[in-house]
Amino acid sequence: MDLKEVMAVNLRRMRHDRDMTQEELADRAGLSTRYVGAIERADVSASVTILGKIAEALDVEPGALLKAVPASPR
């Protein structure tokens, strides 16, 4: 999994954990809802500036969005 996909998975999980919509996250981060959706689909790579804005909006450290979570055993 590349970093774009890692960030997409983490972003979606963290946003859902906070019962936040893409629109709410986009508003808090000063981004468009369309761009947040593209990041969550791993369609685009977010710059470090955008990573920082999203982390601040989610109240997490930026590195948390890039940390790969081991797959669960099946």
From TrEMBL:
InterPro entries referenced in this protein's UniProt entry, alphabetically: Cro/C1-type_HTH, Lambda_DNA-bd_dom_sf, TransReg_Diox_bact_type
Source species: Gluconacetobacter aggeris
MF (Gene Ontology): DNA binding; DNA-binding transcription factor activity
Protein name: Helix-turn-helix transcriptional regulator
Stretches of the chain forming a coiled coil according to its record: none
Domain of life, source organism: Bacteria
CDD domains to which the protein is assigned, alphabetical: HTH_XRE
Swiss-Prot/TrEMBL keywords: DNA-binding, Transcription, Transcription regulation
